[in-house]
Specification:
The structure is a single chain. This protein has 127 residues and is an alpha+beta fold. 25% of the residues are buried. It is elongated. It has a single domain, classed as Sufe protein. Chain: A. 46% of the residues lie in helices and 19% in strands. Helix 3 packs across helix 4. A 3-stranded antiparallel β-sheet has the order 1-2-3. It has 4 helices and 3 strands.
Length: 127
């Protein structure tokens, strides 16, 4: 009986450790992720798809450009632990300011940067 309890505890410890490790993958890179500025006015009309790969913050977006303006951003594949309010506020800020130089949502800097980077990658053709 004691062996079973020990194995269950070891199994739980491994599981918890794995969950914590997975949650941290991409965190350091996301904290220092540089976001370039893109001149939206020079972009041809069309739909652009881009992604950011960074652990649980990986995402894919589709950006619509009309008359040199970003008119829409759709999340094609969302981050693992979704934060709908952060997503909405970040993408609306890009469209309102017509820039990637927007303030990150407090407490969700990595999430906001992940969306910003995916939009940047879409508009610059980066992978």
């Amino acid at each position: 009986m004691l062996k079973i309890i020990v194995w269950v505890l070891v199994g739980l410890a491994v599981l918890v450790g794995g969950v914590i490790a997975f949650g941290l993958i991409g965190r350091r890179a996301g904290e220092t992720l540089p976001i370039g500025n893109v001149d939206f006015s020079t972009l041809p009309d069309g739909e652009y798809t881009g992604q950011y790969k960074g652990g649980r913050w990986s995402n894919r977006v589709r950006v619509t450009v009309k008359a040199g303006r970003v008119t829409g951003i759709d999340v094609v594949r969302d981050i693992l632990f979704r934060q709908p309010e952060v997503t909405r506020r970040t993408l609306e800020a890009i469209i309102e300011t017509q820039s990637l130089e927007v303030d990150a949502v407090s407490g969700a800097t990595i999430t906001a940067k992940a969306y910003l980077k995916a939009v940047e990658n879409a508009l610059t053709g980066e992978k």
